[in-house]
Design goal:
The complex is a heterodimer. By secondary structure, chain A is mostly beta strands. Chain A has strands spanning 4-6, 10-13, 19-25, 31-38, 42-49, 56-57, 64-70, 73-78, 87-94, 103-104, 108-112. By secondary structure, chain B is mainly β. Chain B has strands at residues 4-5, 11-14, 19-25, 33-38, 45-50, 54-58, 61-66, 71-76, 85-92, 99-101, 105-110. Chain B starts with a strand and ends with a strand.
Chain lengths: 113, 111
């Protein structure tokens, strides 16, 4: 069964901490994405990557960075966590071309206190 | 202007009825259309994809696409309480395999 795996289901961090969210996929997908989802705001794209070491800003990149050193792994970094980054974070992956949808990971519920 | 629009709901239907969920999009050249189901606290799960005008059926689900009118819909026949979830419409609006998501419609199926 194909999978997108996010390292943590629930995470609690303190304000100012550096936070790493990890995502691994086993489908040989070129594209990987990080979204956050908040009530009433839908899915908002933070960053995406279409190849190893490539990254593109999404709609809300401020306060975040990403790393993609290997094709299967895409990391989201909160440089200095703040309470307004409390959210559900969703990783997704897809093939670069073709009429394919995204496969989502199970999500990480991050609480910053 | 939002590029993919859905009524946020909630859409309430009785058990056994047909639930009809609608989605409109802005780009006439869109080629790929997807429906995701998201249970509360869970991640989106792909349930239907459609690429050509007309209907596509999969079990109790039917996706309908009308490119001329720029809308895509999802019908759920014999709705069950377990179908209660938020349904996200996603459209490939431009080049490459990049999807734009609607805000989702919350469906409630009452026993």
């Amino acid at each position: 069964d194909v999978k997108v795996t996010q390292s943590s289901r629930y995470l609690v961090k303190r304000t100012g901490e550096k936070v790493f969210l990890e995502c691994v996929q086993d489908m040989d997908h070129e594209n990987m994405f990080w979204y956050r989802q908040d009530p009433g705001l839908g899915l908002r794209l933070i960053y995406f990557s279409y190849d190893v070491k490539m990254k593109e800003k999404g709609d809300i990149p401020e306060g975040y960075s990403v790393s993609r050193e290997k094709k299967e792994r895409f990391s989201l970094i909160l440089e200095s966590a703040s309470t307004n980054q409390t959210s559900m974070y969703l990783c997704a992956s897809s093939f670069r071309t073709g009429p394919y949808g995204y496969t989502f990971g199970s999500g990480t519920r991050l609480t910053v206190v | 202007q939002k590029e993919v629009e859905q009524n946020s709901g909630p859409l309430s239907v009785p058990e056994g009825a047909i639930a009809s969920l609608n989605c409109t999009y802005s780009d006439r050249v869109s080629q790929s259309f997807f429906w995701y189901r998201q249970y509360s606290g869970k991640s989106p799960e792909l349930i239907m994809s459609i690429y050509s005008n007309g209907d596509k059926e999969d079990g109790r689900f039917t996706a309908q696409l009308n490119k001329a009118s720029q809308y895509v819909s999802l019908l759920i026949r014999d709705s069950q309480p377990s179908d209660s979830a938020t349904y996200l419409c996603a459209v490939n609006l431009g080049a490459g395999n990049m999807l734009t998501f609607g805000g989702g419609t919350r469906l409630m199926v009452k026993p």
